[in-house]
Design goal:
Number of helices: 9
CATH class of the largest domain: Alpha Beta
Strand order of the largest sheet: 5-7-6-8-9
Helix content: 25-40%
Distance between the termini: 26 Å
Strand content: 5-15%
Shape: globular
CATH topology of the largest domain: Rossmann fold
Number of strands: 9
Largest sheet: 5 strands, mixed
Radius of gyration: 20 Å
């Protein structure tokens, strides 16, 4: 039975003990400008800043962070920001150079570096021989091997709580006049996410043991958290369609594994998934790991998790 690597720190002050999360930047009277790379992280940042300010989002809607190119307006946003919220510059590669150029003028909170985070190594495409999740840890110096990290860390809500804690600590340091408000928002966000986590466990428990296939391997954290049984992914690189040979081999494996559902994503063409599902006599569902169709803001992240659970239940729960 899968277990998380660490429990969430119950007190936000623990996050302040991680010196690399908080940079010694001069205090400003105004609320610090925050930029977030993708919609789920932007939503979590918006929870912490609720009533005080709004973070700026870079990758919007159905755009993919895998091949994203910064616009001039994005560059100006990064240059004006005092805090950046990202997964990791090895994941959002388009941010590596601009963040490095800003140096200590911007505090970068990389979710993949947070102490206590649950992390996994990537799985290979096709049908996975085992349904286990290979945990990925920190080396002796406390650094991650980012090329071996499954970057979809936000899909475990306990990881999301860690990000909320870290951002509240960072903003409290930069904006002490509003520290109490950031902490109240963080407390409320963590409580909401914890309650949702309990509800999702109950809702998804009946789906254990029902195999399915996804378009690309973006859901490992969600699957591990809720005891789901994924059978594999169609492609390793979502920006590269699988070959005809691969599709034929995958079809045979889906039939043998008795896969009930094949899930597509709104960011990528549906034809590949529809063709594979039809050939394997499986149903088609929709999973969205980033909330592409949802309006950005504090409500997006909880809605994203609920939508994943609803989609899985609708497709896999059908007799």
């Amino acid at each position: 039975m899968w277990k998380p690597l660490a429990r969430i720190a119950p007190n936000w002050k623990i996050a302040l003990a991680a010196p690399f999360l908080v940079l010694s930047l001069p205090a400003h009277a105004e609320v610090p400008k925050v930029v977030a790379s993708i919609q789920p992280l932007h939503s979590l940042a918006a929870m912490v800043m609720d009533g005080l300010g709004e973070p700026t989002l870079l990758v919007r809607g159905a755009a993919s962070e895998h091949g994203y190119a910064l616009k001039p307006s994005d560059v100006r946003t990064i240059e004006a920001a005092r805090v950046a919220v990202i997964v990791d510059t090895g994941y959002e590669t388009f941010l590596a150079k601009p963040l490095k150029a800003r140096g200590n003028k911007i505090a970068t909170i990389a979710m993949a570096d947070l102490p206590g985070l649950t992390v996994f190594e990537p799985r290979e495409g096709g049908v996975w021989e085992k349904h286990g999740h290979k945990k990925h840890g920190h080396d002796a110096h406390g650094h991650d091997h980012h090329d071996e990290l499954d970057g979809h860390v936000w899909l475990d809500p306990t990881n999301a709580q860690l990000l909320v804690t870290a951002l509240a600590a960072q903003l409290s340091e930069l904006d002490p006049a509003n520290a109490a408000a950031y902490q109240r928002n963080a407390d409320a966000a963590r409580a909401k996410l914890a309650a949702q986590d309990d509800a999702l466990k109950a809702k998804l428990a009946p789906l254990a043991g029902k195999p399915y296939v996804v378009f690309h391997d973006a859901y490992q954290y969600f699957e591990a958290r809720y005891g789901l049984t994924p059978a594999g992914s169609i492609t390793v690189d979502p920006d590269r369609p699988p070959s005809a040979k691969r599709m034929a081999a995958l079809k045979d494996k889906l039939v043998n594994a008795k896969v009930a559902c094949v899930f597509r994503e709104p960011q990528f063409p549906a034809a590949i998934v529809d063709s594979l599902a039809k050939s394997a006599n499986a149903r088609v569902g929709l999973l969205d790991p980033q909330g592409a169709s949802l309006p950005p803001g504090p409500a997006l992240y909880p809605a994203l998790l609920d939508n994943l659970a609803d989609s899985l239940t609708k497709c896999l729960g059908t007799p």
